[in-house]
Amino acid sequence: MKAVNVKQPGGAEQLQVKEFSKPLPKQGEILIKVNAAAVNRTDIVNREGKSGYNTNPILGIEVAGEVVDVASDVNIEKGTRVMGLVNGGAYAEYAVMPADRAMIIPDNLSFEEAAAIPEVFLTAYQTLFWLGGLTDEDTVLIHAGGSGVGTAAIQLAKQLTKAKIITTAGSAEKLDYCRSLGADVCINYKEESFPEEVLKATNDQGADLILDFIGASYWEKNLQSICTDGRWILIGVLGGTEVEKVNLMQLMLKRVQLKGTLLTPRSDEYKQQLTQDFSEHVLPLIQENKIKPIIDKIFKLEDVQEAHKHMEENKNIGKIILRIDEEG
Amino acid sequence: MKAVNVKQPGGAEQLQVKEFSKPLPKQGEILIKVNAAAVNRTDIVNREGKSGYNTNPILGIEVAGEVVDVASDVNIEKGTRVMGLVNGGAYAEYAVMPADRAMIIPDNLSFEEAAAIPEVFLTAYQTLFWLGGLTDEDTVLIHAGGSGVGTAAIQLAKQLTKAKIITTAGSAEKLDYCRSLGADVCINYKEESFPEEVLKATNDQGADLILDFIGASYWEKNLQSICTDGRWILIGVLGGTEVEKVNLMQLMLKRVQLKGTLLTPRSDEYKQQLTQDFSEHVLPLIQENKIKPIIDKIFKLEDVQEAHKHMEENKNIGKIILRIDEEG
């Protein structure tokens, strides 16, 4: 089968489509004929050889496709349309996945739309609810509102709670889109001071919960934007990993709760439980079109270098999808 | 009445005993004839003018004494022996306190022993249980094991859970004492690498919970000592407030939960609830002599400068008490 790996750790030019042998489903697993995969920041970190937790030579962590084979202990019918997180190996014609975290694709979604769901929606769900404990009374600040996780988080917060949603993004187009998804306060971080705007929108109290995909470059500003006893979930480092001079007294005086998290390196058991909770509470809303996957652009697998470059340019609103066409 | 205030923000030499007017109990308050108060780090920070949350000109945040007057809406008998947190004003002959957070002093304790309870035991209780969620299966790393909060935390962890207790201190004498209170692993941070010893004691997993009174100087070492998904409660900055470089990716990879906290600036309501929970679960153990206040040294109120200097020399094991003798 064809699949994408990395020649040498480095830029998008290191990605290549190569012939691999088809994986075999081990106990508890299913084999999926992949129709679509999606590009994630974690794929770029892996491409650069910087993650330290990737063991699969084939890139990619989420797929949508059809079940074509199952292990003897698995009770899923061949032909079932499924989506979900894989432990690497998504940018390929075939991939294996633990059966207990395969989600059945709602009928109203194409494979490309389904591939836009797992990673960003599970991450946003985990961050908002499992780690962030978002409630109706909260104000949540969602950075990178136009990103895959951002667009997912805005929709989830809107549909599952009455929380006030503040988001930041770098263009009017992205902010308009965020507003259409349910964001209440939309801040252009290139033109406005987001801490000032957050304080304005919260009676000078600050946000109860921050979803931080930015990291170092926003450290001080997030500290200004968070309320006393606020929760701050660190889930990405688009703005760098290293903060110079962190004042611990500020963390103590504001009694900040800072939680670092990543989804990809977590255990199979955790991913299964998260998937199950998400399926129960969110898939029905997707079926009713109240929550929708947001696709920015679809690339062919062969154009994977272009797809990575597109993400690195930060211009996307929503997900970048790889379509895997059958050979021949 | 005589009481202690600060001439100008600065060192211990700025402390003076002066004549103040006796405070009056407002609604919901009691007036206490103070027999003993205790010295806390927060008093030193206030003396230096650095806390930003102190409004009472008289220093001190905890007292033990006798109720001599009550507001009309309070139902506590005069003559009752009580201890608890005050909103400043403890280093004095008389102090007022919200009645709903006065704890009745167990019969087996002197006033000096009682004054050694509120701040450090409530802080340790809050940190271990309300914020740290300590369970029987956890390993907890308690820094500054010989300090007031350290000796309280070791006893509370030992008596209320089956958790494994690791502590650090800077002398063999302090470590022996920690062991006698229930610490399982005692590390001399001046002679050993505490992250190495913590990893050794936890099968290379790291501690589930860290009580950090040290801050900046231990930042990297705490990060090495904590387990994946570990909880890290930042409650003091004896080792400085400013961390030169914080690597956020490390916080994400280890999925650290970092919570900053302080007790003194919290609301009256919070202190009342904490006191109530503590009274229910811990006072009976104090009555049975299973948990005991640890007194390092008792000073007369007039020797308050010496008392502060003694704390700043870091040689104490347990609490430093001020005894307030009647005038004349």
UniProtKB/TrEMBL annotation, chains A, B:
One of its GO terms (molecular function) is oxidoreductase activity, acting on NAD(P)H. Residues 10-322 form the Enoyl reductase (ER) domain. InterPro entries: ADH-like_C, ADH-like_N, ER, GroES-like_sf, NAD(P)-bd_dom_sf, Quinone_OxRdtase_PIG3. Keywords: NADP, Oxidoreductase. This is NAD(P)H-quinone oxidoreductase. It comes from Virgibacillus halodenitrificans (Bacillus halodenitrificans).
